[in-house]
Design the sequence.
């Protein structure tokens, strides 16, 4: 039975049973589940044993695997998506308190484990938080990576590293004026043009030649006429003074009133300069140290600097000097002479100081009066 092999013997037979069967005619199925139960050869860890034609099969409890359910399953085997699509699950030792299988996540570049210890799934790293791009360039976060937008105008590079473009050295860029030539000044991300040369106007990129009258060469009240370079005036312009004024009109003093009698040589004192400002008015421009309509007042002598004890004189350089009255001395007549000798009561005689060339003495100086008596009155 059951696929056994029958061997004919003398007055009897013998059955050679296939595996998993026994009995005289191989009629009995061997119960390996019962035989091996509780032994290392049977199902382990409370697994269920199921007989099959070719032997037995162990149905493992959750958390175990293997032919006999002898192996404990790792956390990574429970779930293949514990670490997310960008992570690789690595089994670790079971938790010493719960005996739960442990694991950690090995994340791909651009990802990192979550801060949640109970769920350390691999999350995307936002590289833009660390500002990896060049200032002024936009950072775009990507799964596991990032990219930088193009460099700012006037710079070249990959967005992380941007280098200044020297526009002044480029032959393909229109920068500053070539005629007339204007200096190009390179700056970070751009460039600047020096001012247009004298006689031209513009922003340095474009310089246009100015007409002579645009340079305001005439007196403020004069009219300017552009005459062209063929005119008698080599500068190419002509100035015309207004009625009542004469002169060539060139410059701020090119026109003056015809009534020159207002400004005589003695109109302004102390070397002041006279200027006619209208038909009937003039103005004195005083030198330093003098004020007044005709520069007649010296500024150094306006504050009673000599203390009413002397006469104030102004020197040519604008400084002052005090000519002190008798009995006073000092730069501003601030000191009073000591007056040696007391009162003189003689009717005749000559008063003589110890040194007749000096009229004041320092304090505590010894001095005396010498009376020379007239010989006729002896």
Sequence:
């Amino acid at each position: 039975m059951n696929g056994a092999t029958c061997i004919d013997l003398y007055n009897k037979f013998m059955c050679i049973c296939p595996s998993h069967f026994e009995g005289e005619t191989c009629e009995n199925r061997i119960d390996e589940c019962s035989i091996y139960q509780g032994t290392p050869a049977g199902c382990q860890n409370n697994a269920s044993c199921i007989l099959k034609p070719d032997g037995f099969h162990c149905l493992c409890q959750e958390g175990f695997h293997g032919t006999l359910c002898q192996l404990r399953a790792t956390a990574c085997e429970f779930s293949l998506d514990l670490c997310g699509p960008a992570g690789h699950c690595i089994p670790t030792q079971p938790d010493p308190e719960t005996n739960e299988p442990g694991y950690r996540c090995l994340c791909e570049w651009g990802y990192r484990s979550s801060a949640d210890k109970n769920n350390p799934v691999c999350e995307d790293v936002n590289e833009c938080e660390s500002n990896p791009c060049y200032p002024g360039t936009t950072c775009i976060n990507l799964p596991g990576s990032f990219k930088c937008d193009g460099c700012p105008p006037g710079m070249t590079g990959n967005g992380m590293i941007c280098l200044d473009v020297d526009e002044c050295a480029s032959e393909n860029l229109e920068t500053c004026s070539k005629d007339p030539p204007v200096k190009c000044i390179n700056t970070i991300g751009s460039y600047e043009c020096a001012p247009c040369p004298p006689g031209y106007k513009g922003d340095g990129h474009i310089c246009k030649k100015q007409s002579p009258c645009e340079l305001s060469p005439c007196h403020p009240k004069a009219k300017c006429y552009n005459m062209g370079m063929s005119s008698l005036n080599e500068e190419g312009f002509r100035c015309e003074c207004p009625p009542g004024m004469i002169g060539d009109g060139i410059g701020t003093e090119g026109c003056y009133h015809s009534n020159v009698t207002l400004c005589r040589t003695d109109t302004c004192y102390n070397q002041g300069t006279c200027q006619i400002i209208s038909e009937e008015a003039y103005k004195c421009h005083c030198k330093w140290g003098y004020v007044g309509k005709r520069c007649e007042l010296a500024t150094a002598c306006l504050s009673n600097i000599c203390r009413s004890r002397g006469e104030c004189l102004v020197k040519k350089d604008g400084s002052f000097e005090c000519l002190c009255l008798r009995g006073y001395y000092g730069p501003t007549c601030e000191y009073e002479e000591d007056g040696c000798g007391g009162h003189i009561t003689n009717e005749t005689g000559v008063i003589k100081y110890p040194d007749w060339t000096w009229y004041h003495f320092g304090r505590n100086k010894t001095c005396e009066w010498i009376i020379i008596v007239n010989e006729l009155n002896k």
